[in-house]
């Protein structure tokens, strides 16, 4: 095993939350070290146009925005490593993390910003038409489908919310529901059923997304054994998100869906010195701007924690 490297603020994850935390921690002279994980830049690197982040009147390309955030964090002294944290041990202090299964690091504080990943159906055409008609976020991308016909797949509250949101922008929304009923709350179901331009397709499987070089042109569905193509220009996945918390199981308190639990009004977890920011602790909003906001909070929480630690040491 290599020498143990000691770090004041270790940031795990490289989306808006991780990089914002790095900017704040670096400006506070805490010399943060950030590990990007397997998807540097996080979910935003799968989005071409980000038009809802404040300060970009013309919008910005997702990967470009993440590169800008990285440069900003590095400008103030953040060390960025393109590697993955594969294990953590928060049972004793200092906190320990393992990089790529080999190097062990010791940290005085850890900010977890590993994000959440949208669940996909697993059909090849999802990848083929990613950013060309296939999306996992109606709030992010719905604007591009104004006046068009779209399909939403899902049966829970998020599918109901995405459908009603899109119904205000699109001429028609096809909601594809696998069973003969929805899992969404009664109030959300009523809202969907009372929206005239939402058509619910019950007992419907999505077989394939079809399109050409310009993007999505339709979706082939199977309803009660009968296959047909409905013409749509957009296909939205609303079958849930999975927080990237596997490595923290048994180390941090997680809710029933696997999101990290934080103390209300803060980013503090159940382990002293460990903070969580962004989508990994947010099952409600999941926006770049809210992730950045909690990234800022986590750095301020970490700074306060480290200052208290130093005070304690000084009085010993």
- Which structural category do the helix and sheet elements fall into? alpha/beta
Distance between the termini: 33 Å
User: Are there runs of 5+ residues with pLDDT below 50, and where?
Assistant: none
- Outline, from the CA principal axes? elongated
The whole-number mean of residue pLDDT values reads: 94
CATH architecture of the largest domain: 3-Layer(bba) Sandwich
Question: At the third CATH level, what is the topology name of the largest domain?
Answer: FAD/NAD(P)-binding domain
The count of β-strands is: 19
Helix content bin = 25-40%
Number of helices: 7
Number of domains: 2
CATH homologous superfamily name of the largest domain?
Answer: FAD/NAD(P)-binding domain
CATH class of the largest domain: Alpha Beta
> Rg, please?
22 Å
- The oligomeric state is single chain
Report the portion of residues in β strands. 25-35%
* N-to-C order of helices and strands: EHEEEHEEEEEHEHEHEHEEEEEEEH
User: Tell me about the biggest sheet?
Assistant: 7 strands, mixed
């Amino acid at each position: 095993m290599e020498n143990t490297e000691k770090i004041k603020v270790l940031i795990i994850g490289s989306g808006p939350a991780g990089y914002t935390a790095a900017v704040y921690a670096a400006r506070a002279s805490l010399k943060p070290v950030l590990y990007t994980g397997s998807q540097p830049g996080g979910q935003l690197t799968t989005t071409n146009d980000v038009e809802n982040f404040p300060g970009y009147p013309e919008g910005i390309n997702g990967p470009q925005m993440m590169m800008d955030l990285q440069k900003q964090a590095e400008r103030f002294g953040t060390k960025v490593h393109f590697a993955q944290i594969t294990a953590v041990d928060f049972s004793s202090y200092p906190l320990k993390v393992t990089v790529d299964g080999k190097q062990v690091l010791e940290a005085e504080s850890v900010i977890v910003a590993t994000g959440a990943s949208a669940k996909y159906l697993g059909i090849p055409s999802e990848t083929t038409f990613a950013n060309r008609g296939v999306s996992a976020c109606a709030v992010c991308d719905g604007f591009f489908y104004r006046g068009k016909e779209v399909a939403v797949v899902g049966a829970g509250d998020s599918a109901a919310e995405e459908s009603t949101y899109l119904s205000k922008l699109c001429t028609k929304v096809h909601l594809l529901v696998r069973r003969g009923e929805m899992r969404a709350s009664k109030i959300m179901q009523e809202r969907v059923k009372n929206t005239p331009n939402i058509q619910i397709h019950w007992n419907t499987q999505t077989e394939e997304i079809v399109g050409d070089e310009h993007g999505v042109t339709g979706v082939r569905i199977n309803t009660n054994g009968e296959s047909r193509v409905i013409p749509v220009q957009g296909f939205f996945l609303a079958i849930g998100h999975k927080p990237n918390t596997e490595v923290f199981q048994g180390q941090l308190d997680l809710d029933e869906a696997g999101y990290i639990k934080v103390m209300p009004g803060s980013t503090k977890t159940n382990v002293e010195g460990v903070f969580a920011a962004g989508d990994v602790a947010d099952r409600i909003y999941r926006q770049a701007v809210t992730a950045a906001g909690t990234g800022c909070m986590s750095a301020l929480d970490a700074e306060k924690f480290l200052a208290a630690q130093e005070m304690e040491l000084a009085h010993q």
